[in-house]
Structure formats: C-alpha cells, structure tokens
Amino acid sequence: MVGRVSLSCDSVPLPSNHPQRFALNYELHARPFAELRPPTRASYLAMLADDMARPAEQSCLAELCTRYGQPPPSTAVNHFSVDLGPFQLKWERHTEFTSYTFLVNAPFAVPSAFASPVIGQVPQTWLAGLPGSIIAAAHVAVIPSAAGPPLTEEIAPLFDDNAVVGARIGEGAGAAYTDFRIHADGFSRFLIFDLRLTSRQAGRMLQRMLEIETYVMQALLTFPLARGLLPELADTDRRLVEITTRMAEASPADEPALLDQLTRLAAGIEHSVSSTHYRFSATRAYHALVDRRIAELREMRIEGVQTFREFTERRLAPAMNTCESVARLQATLSERIDRASHLLRTRVEITREQQNQALLASMDRRAKLQLRLQQTVEGLSVAAVTYYIVGMVGYLAKAVETLGVTLNPGLVMAAAVPVVALLAALGVRHIRRTVSRESVH
Fold first, then answer.
1. For position 221, what pLDDT does the model report?
2. Model pLDDT for residues 282-309, shown as the tens digit of each residue
C-alpha cells in the first residue's frame, strides 16, 4: 500500500502518487507529431539495434547536440526533438528500431524535390557512427499546392518513371505519392502536396507515411524466414506420414523405435516454433499497424493511380499470408505429432500391460508349482522324520526288552508310527505358518 504524504496542489494536501503515474502519463504523449509549415523536406532513417546499442545511441545524440550547442536529451526519454540550426532532428526509440528524422523548411520547386536531400546537411562522420543497421530510409518532400497536385505523368520522373502509388489524404486535404522502391541513393521517396492541411495535420501525415514504410519492412523481415522454413516443414510432414504409416503395421518390437523417432520429430518442430514465435507475432503486429496507418490517411482515389491500400493488399498481403500459413503449418504439425505420439504411447502401454499380465500369470503358475513342490517336500519330510523317530523308538524298545521287561518292540514301533507322524505333521505345519507370518511382516 502506498503511504499518504502531504503533496500540495494549490495548497490542497493530496495522497502520494502511484509510482508509475507520471511514466504512464508520459506514454500518452510519447512521440508527438512534428508541426510542419511547408515547403518542408525530410530525410528519415530507421535503425535496427538491440538494447546493447542504447548507450551508443545516447552518446551519438549527445555528440550531435553538443556540436550545434544544444543540450542533449535525458537518458530516460524515448523521443526527442531539437532545432540544431541547419536542420531539425526528431529522434524516437521504438521496441525494435530507432528512428531519426531530419527536417528543413526551405522553398524548392517540384522538379528538384529530391535533388538536395536533407541528409546531405547532417555530418557524414556522425551518420557513419550510428549504431545498428538500416531497415528503412526515405526522403520526403512536402509542397504547398493550393491549386491541387500536378498530373501523375508530371511527377513520375521524380520516381524514375516507376509505377506510382498515391491518393488524396486527409479526406482531400492533401495528396501523397510514392513508388515504395529503394532508389540509387538507398532511400525511398515520398511526395506530399499540401492542399489545405493544418501544420499538425501535415506533421501527422508525414509521420504516417514514414511509419508505413518502416512497418512494411519490419513485417517483411519474417517473410524470408517463413520461406526458408517451408522445405524443413515439408520434410517434417513427410517423415510424420512415414512414421504414422509404419505405425499401422508395426509389431510391438518396433514401437519403441517409432516412439523415439516421433520424440525427435516433436523436439525438432517445437524448436522451430519456439525460435520463430516472437518473429511471427511481431509480423502480425506490424501488419496490423500498416493497416491502421493507411486507414488513418483517409484515402481518396486519384484517377489512374493505385492507392496505398490497394498496393499493400496486392504486394504485402501475399507475403503476410505466407507467414501466417507457415505459422499455422507449424502449429498443425505440432498437434499431429502430439496425437501420433499419444497414440503410439497408448499402444506401447497396452503392450506393456499385456506383457505384465503374461508375466503375472507365469509367476502365478510358478507359485502354484512351488506350493505343490513344497507340499510334496513337507510330506516327504514328515515321512522321513517319522521313519527316523520310529526307528529310535524301536531301539529303545529293544533296549528295555533286554532288561527283562516283557515288551514286543515291533508292536511298540507300530503303535508309535501314527503318533510320531501326527506330531511331525503338526510341527511342519507350525514352522510353515511361522515363516509365512514373518514374510508378510
């Protein structure tokens, strides 16, 4: 429980704040849109870098700010904007990448929209030292055009005469064009015409364009992985079919070997699932973000030009479908292997139970034979004991007869036989019961 402390707000005592209150409020306002007043040009870099690169990112930001006499950002923030004089910098740290947007407000003509990119004004040695690898890079030109955008044929040369994708955006307040291609300088190109966009609206449209470019590339990162998994999964499927076919005709002696093969197959597919699950989940998230950002553009068709939605549905959706198919195939194979393993384990357990039953039956027969043998031995033991004791009685009777006592040793021996036999039998029975009680305890 958070204790109460005396915080004042207009001299009113308040309870203590939740430890994450300010951090959560900060997240609501994270990555604000830049306010643009066209004409504006921008260069954008999205760098893939792990958590180990964060100190290097902070060091690079501090170095750039110091070079232009500006204070560096706090190490605790995830976004930062600053006017460095020759250009403005907008820096954002995302979960898997870090973005750098460099902006300049200066007049330019449409034919020279991409002739002098902003990235040329950024210190080249500083750029070369940025940690990570480029996943997306783009040049953007935002041009005021109250009369409307020019014909598509007029702007096609800016995209090296590639097929142009574009649409009216903001429900007609602007128009945006791109070809979604990486040009010779390593950058994609976006051209935005400001018809009646507000400064904040222009900033939102610029950011959405750049996010679409980045999220498309992030989503596509999984496509080579998925395509590379297809032969492996096809081989796993073939081996599973072979094993299940052999299971139908396998003898009990073959079942342990088949179960071992299934276990190895299950381990392989589970390794595949666990090693790719995060990437497939990230792809679904990025694909959803692309759809959301395109929806936020509020597109209106330009005659004869493919819209952003149509382009992504035609070009990106098949790759995403492939990724989804591979993920489903992994899950299906895992389930099939699990069912086959369960079935085979059941068969092995049934076989073992049958073997155990046969063993118990054999042990029961052996116990009965031992009992009969024991009874036979006991009978022989009684006979042997009776024979020896009666013989001793006979010797005693003869000895008594020699002393002058009238006695018939034969009759004495004959009379002693049933008595001795009965006592011997009772003695053997007592010994057997004693041994049985001790074995139970």
1. 94
2. 999 999 999 999 999 999 999 989 999 9
Q: Is residue 13 part of a domain?
A: no
Long-range contacts of 216-219 (CB under 8 A, 24+ apart): 216/180, 216/286, 216/290, 216/312, 216/316, 217/46, 217/135, 217/136, 218/96, 218/97, 218/135, 218/282, 218/283, 218/286, 219/283, 219/286, 219/287, 219/290, 219/316, 219/319, 219/320
Please give the residue range of the domain that contains residue 114: 34-202
Clarify whether residues 255 and 303 are in a common domain.
Answer: yes
The answer to whether 152 and 103 are in contact (CB under 8 A) is: no
The pair phi, psi for residue 102, each rounded to 5°, is -110, 125
* Domain co-membership, 281 together with 156: no
pLDDT per residue as tens digits for the range 255-288: 788 888 888 999 999 999 999 999 999 999 999 9
Peptide linkage before 72 cis (omega within 30 of 0)? no
405, pLDDT greater than 90 = no
How far apart are alpha carbons 130 and 122 in whole angstroms?
12
Q: Are residues 198 and 289 in the same domain?
A: no
In whole angstroms, give the CA distance from residue 117 to residue 80: 22
Q: Do both 255 and 342 map to the same domain?
A: yes
Please answer whether residues 178 and 159 qualify as being in contact, where contact means their C-beta atoms are separated by less than 8 angstroms: yes
User: Could you read off the pLDDT of 4-27 as tens digits, one per residue?
Assistant: 444 444 567 788 888 888 777 766
Together in a domain, 159 and 117: yes
Residue 384 lies in a domain: no
Number of domains in the chain: 2
Q: Compute the half-sphere exposure of residue 6: CA atoms within 13 Å on the CB side of its CA.
A: 1
